[in-house]
Amino acid sequence: MPVPEHIHPAVWRASQLARGAARTLPTGHAALSAELPDGGWPLGSLIEVLTPHPGSGEIRLLRPALAQLETRRPIALVQPPHPPHIASWMSWKLDPRQLLWVAPEKPADALWATEQILKNGSCGAVLCWLPQVRPES
Asked: Hey, CA dihedral for 13, 19, 22, 27, is it positive or negative?
């Protein structure tokens, strides 16, 4: 099995130093930005956030970056572990009218919905929770 960083030059592990040529969005967290290639979240790329439990703070981690997105573009939440808490979004100065909450019945539907949203290109960000997804998906 190939080592992940040998699959493509843009694939790297957080334990490795890396620099890319991608446009980035500041993370809003100085220590995190200092560790990421090019100093922020890469735009137009897949970012995998691994947490011990879904819903344990990933939105709070991404909040500063989400606040920098265009206010006219929706933020898609696909299969979040908990319903979005509108008061929290408002207290974070995020417009809850931007939220597109997708709650599919089956994990396969979550993958399909995420693919369709990405193909459409109308969202400023797509956040998808896939607790038991196979790597090839």
From this structure: positive
Q: Per-residue pLDDT tens for 62-74? A: 999 998 887 778 9
Beta bridge partners of 41: 25
CA–CA separation, 29 and 89 (whole Å): 18
Write down the pLDDT at residue 43. 85
CB 33 within 8 A of CB 26: yes
> For 48-137, which CATH class?
alpha beta
Residue 21: is its pLDDT beyond 80? no
CA distances from 94 to 58, 61, 88, 89, 90 (A): 15, 14, 9, 5, 5
Give ranges for CATH 3.40.50.300 in the chain.
Answer: 48-137
Q: Where are the beta strands (DSSP E) in 1-137?
A: 24-25, 41-42, 75-78, 99-102, 125-128
